Amino acid sequence: MPGSQEASLDEDAVFLPVKPSSPEFLYSELERHSMEKLLCEGPKAFYNSVGTELSGSFLSPDEVSEITSWVQDFHFTPLQKEENGGNVNPDEADLTSSYFPSYSDVPAPSLALGWPEAPWVRMENVAVYTNPPAEGEPSIREVIRRHLQKASQVLAIVTDRLTDSTIIGDLHDAASRGVPVYIILNQRTVEEKYTLHRLGHPNIQVRVLGGKSFCSSKGKMMVGELKDKFILVDLERVIHGSYLAWTDAHLHRHLITVITGSVVDSFDKEFRTLFAASAPVPNLLQYAVPHVEMTEQQNDFKDPSPPRHFHVTQEILNPPSPPMDTHLDWEAMGVITRESFPDSLTPGLILMKRRNNVIKSALQRIPQASKPRPRSFALDLSWRPLRERKGEEE
Prior knowledge:
By secondary structure, the protein is of the alpha+beta class. The protein is built from 13 helices and eleven strands. The protein has three domains: about 30-70, no CATH class; about 75-300, Endonuclease Chain A (Endonuclease, Chain A, 2-Layer Sandwich), CATH 3.30.870; about 340-394, no CATH class.
């Protein structure tokens, strides 16, 4: 409990006023009252309150719209439900808010996949990389991927979104080679379930966490966002910044900072604190079932090798009739068979049959001795099988 909250329990405590110009100025009762109006009565009541009590709005129009979409009835958080065994008694169901939330007696969740010991000696170093990269410097995505691929002890990630298929592939590779991977995602982003189905792995543990809560006296509340963005690599270095989405690598201007040294201990402690406050994602592996429709972005995570082209000869189910101006035995060549047309013949085949009958009758009138032998390149146009024709010649 902060010292100011503890001191407020004392009826004799005297608080000196803090001017807005003071660096210590943080809480404002007028701002709190305006927020109550926004949560309970909507934007119109908020702007009316700001106009009468404050000199100007302390929220932009986008922030007002965003907060309005976050408003909900007070309820227990997933972590509170987990601590209570998933049951809430009727007396607690009517609870609207608590001025000083109590700390849980339940022990913090364990890092079940393992957590290494911090190294005794670290080299102090800070490196800054920009997007687009400076001349001669690697891209931000390249820096991130090199650190992920070299990790050997642990990867701990805190981010509001994780959608880059290439980065997710590197995390799967690290988990497959035995590196524990812990990921804490923004709770509101995870509700879209776009990322969850791609993080299913026995060696990847995903938890979710939101921001701070604001509870009104009339049973309304809102939860902020998780804005921390950093990666712990083997407890030796920290990568701080935005970089885990495709747009971060290709569109947005930003920078990342790679830090080594004693300051890594502060990020180690912060990650453990966030991990203890986060809630688990139940049945994460069920999201890995490939029943989700593949989108254009998800196709980037497929096998990057070039596609194999198979040349398949298309079967002709209805071949055209053979041309009439050629002296070729199409049946003998295997193009057509008599069995292919048992009942009905095409007009072309009917004409061919009549022509063959005329030629056959003419050949029968020629004496056997003077009957010319067919040349090697000439083909008999008779419709009878070749075996019958050979028998007659013998």
